[in-house]
Automatic annotation (TrEMBL):
Origin species: Streptomyces caatingaensis
Name assigned to this protein: Imidazolonepropionase
GO molecular function annotations of the record: imidazolonepropionase activity; iron ion binding; zinc ion binding
Names of the cofactor(s): Zn(2+); Fe(3+)
Record: residues binding N-formimidoyl-L-glutamate: 137, 303, 305
Main location per the UniProt record: cytoplasm
Length: 389
């Protein structure tokens, strides 16, 4: 196998406290040796072993590839008009999802796949090397299963979200739709998915319905994640913790009991500031969660309705500016935090044995991701040891 050393890294984020200083395991004037698809060695440039190839980082920063643990990328159409109206004063509700459902059902497999590939590539160019994505715009047995089949051809982290909203055909029979989601649709979808998810929210699914969806998925061998407490208070976060979900996502409206539950359980709180940005909604309070000892992940929620950004650096900047996170915390949450939300230990860190997913910034420090918002700082990306940009 070919070995490559990246040397003269001005500031290296390892996310391994045994390798460097602080929670980010920071190293100065560092080198990383990549062997095949894995990290083989991390240390000071002067001590780097001989390798086949070398890349001189020239004092710039390197960090783990971003782990975006929440997106919705199998869809057709867009919702420009809805966004435009919202920015002109109209509010956001869960019902807009049905617009995308109609367009997605009408699209061919090839069209859906081309869209997914386009957004995965867009994310990769911005440093995202692990990306979860969901179904949820099909809402029929056929359309949910095909969304997951298409997703599974391009990412390992695939989530069954038949319970995104009640399908239009079941508008007068939501419990009938839950029976479909937990029965025939689950049977068709489970072979293509790792995770089961539900939008537990007023206008989508209530606590009892959400519990039924998650328990059915768990019984089928899937692991749970939950869209919880985005638009208002509700049972989603505590249900996620009770059922041992890997992640409760959004967490915008939390009671003290919700925060306590997250702090005592193993469920990661995944914050998605692109949604608050794009719906002009109040920010989730990351500081409150971090101070309570909750593990926080930061992701894009990339979807055509409420957060049409694939940029993790943008979300880092929002989290620092408006959610009370320090730059170090935001970078950790977008890398190691995302990995925790996906229960992965092979990504989100740069240490011997980890997958060689690396981002080279055109900046001396990871702090610049928040310090220089909107600037395309990602100058190099390695995924599984292969330089892809
Ligand atoms: Zn979402």
């Amino acid at each position: 196998m070919t070995t490559t050393a990246i040397t003269h890294i001005g500031s290296l984020v390892t996310n391994d406290t045994s390798l460097g200083t602080g929670p980010l395991g920071l190293l100065r004037d560092a080198a990383v040796v990549v062997d095949g698809d894995r990290v083989a060695w991390v240390g000071g440039t002067s001590k780097a072993p001989a390798t086949d190839n070398a890349v001189d980082a020239g004092g710039r920063a390197v960090l783990p590839g971003f782990v975006d643990s929440h997106s919705h990328l199998v869809f057709a159409g867009d919702r420009t008009d809805e966004f435009n109206a919202r920015m002109s004063g109209r509010g956001y509700s869960a019902g807009g999802i049905r617009t995308t459902v109609a367009a997605t059902r009408a699209a061919s497999d090839a069209e859906l796949e081309a869209g997914l590939v386009r957004y995965l590539d867009e994310a990769l160019r911005q440093g995202t090397t692990t990306l979860e994505t969901k179904s949820g715009y099909g809402l029929s047995v056929h359309d949910e299963a095909r969304a997951l089949r298409i997703a599974a051809a391009h990412t390992d982290e695939v989530t069954y979200l038949g319970a995104h909203v009640v399908a239009p055909e079941y508008a007068d029979d939501p419990d009938g739709y839950v029976a479909l989601v937990t029965g025939e649709m689950l049977d068709a979808c489970a072979p293509h998915a790792r995770w089961v998810d539900v939008f537990c929210e007023k206008g989508a699914f209530d606590g009892d319905q959400s519990r039924a969806v998650l328990e059915a998925g768990l019984a089928k061998g899937l692991s749970a994640r939950v869209h919880a407490n985005q638009l208002g208070h509700g049972p989603g976060v505590r249900l996620a913790v009770e059922l041992g979900a890997a992640s409760a996502d959004h967490c915008t409206h939390l009671t003290d009991a919700d925060v306590d539950a997250l702090a005592q359980g193993s469920t990661v709180a995944t914050l998605l500031p692109g949604a608050e940005f794009s719906t002009r909604a109040p920010w989730p309070d990351a500081r409150r969660l971090l101070d309570a000892g909750v593990t926080v992940a930061l992701s894009t929620d990339c979807n055509p309705g409420s957060s049409f950004t694939s940029s993790v650096p943008f979300c880092i900047a929002l989290a620092v500016r408006d959610m009370g996170m320090t730059p170090d915390e935001a970078v950790w949450s977008a890398t190691a935090g995302g990995a925790a939300a996906l229960r992965r230990t092979d990504v989100g860190r740069i240490a011997p044995g980890a997958r060689a997913d690396l981002v080279l910034l055109d900046a001396p420090s990871h702090v610049h991701l928040a310090y220089r918002p909107g600037v395309p700082l990602v100058a190099g990306v390695w995924k599984r040891g292969v330089r892809v940009r």
